[in-house]
Specification:
Helix content is 26%, strand content 29%. The protein has 6 helices and 14 strands. Bound molecules: zinc ion (2 copies).
């Protein structure tokens, strides 16, 4: 059964929120929660979708800013790799102060410490641990649809920065090699900017040629 992906680029720093759903069953999940809760909710209602969970790619505030609102309006749990709890703790105040915002830090939800799989209708969503941008950065992969959500690890024409606390340039290289092994036809939905494919990035991304 086909999967649809809708993007909402409304987070702080224009981070992408993705609404991913199986058309026949209406089962849905949300990837990242940087903003646009009301837009996503409107889409969920319009299509009569059944959201199951919110999956966070990492703990930076531009991807978690509205995680409490998302959990509340959709009535579902959010999940994050446990290695990014500390990133969330330390970077929330620091990151938001650059925007002149002071807000209590929300709970980011439940944690996993390995690479679990989630179910979306008849599809599997696999967690791939890809440290480097942060220690708990993960990508979410739907193998049968060859769809990959890369957060701030891989972008169209670029890769995630590793100079923030918890960043690791050696780790991101091995994470990117892992992603390159997923096959050229894999469609990549990054945490910022437009979609691409593994094949296009392998051929044209200057950072990938250096890993
Ligand atoms: Zn980030
Ligand atoms: Zn980001």
């Amino acid at each position: 059964m086909p999967i649809s992906v809708k993007v909402f680029p409304f987070g702080l720093l224009r981070s992408n929120v993705y609404l991913v759903f199986e058309e026949e069953t209406g089962e849905a999940l949300v990837i990242d929660a940087g903003g646009g809760t009301q837009y996503v909710l409107r889409e969920v209602r319009k299509r009569d979708l059944k959201p199951k969970f919110i999956l966070l790619t990492h703990g930076h505030f531009d991807h978690t800013f509205e995680v409490a609102e998302f959990r509340k309006v959709l009535g579902i749990d959010s999940y994050i790799h446990e290695k990014d709890l500390k990133v969330h703790e330390t970077m929330w105040d620091l990151g938001l102060s650059a925007f002149g915002i002071k807000m209590p830090r929300p709970e980011v939800g439940r944690c996993f410490d390995d690479e679990p799989s989630f179910e979306l209708g008849s599809h599997i969503v696999k967690v791939i641990h890809t440290p480097g941008h942060t220690p708990g950065s993960v990508c979410y992969f739907l193998p049968d649809e060859r769809i990959l959500f890369t957060g701030d690890t891989l972008f169209q024409g670029s890769i995630g920065r590793t100079d923030l606390p918890g960043g690791d340039p050696t780790a991101i290289r091995s994470s990117l090699r892992k992603l390159m092994s997923l096959g050229d036809e894999t469609v990549v939905y990054p945490g910022h900017g437009g979609k691409t494919t593994i094949g296009v990035e392998r051929r044209t991304n200057p950072f990938i040629s250096r890993i």
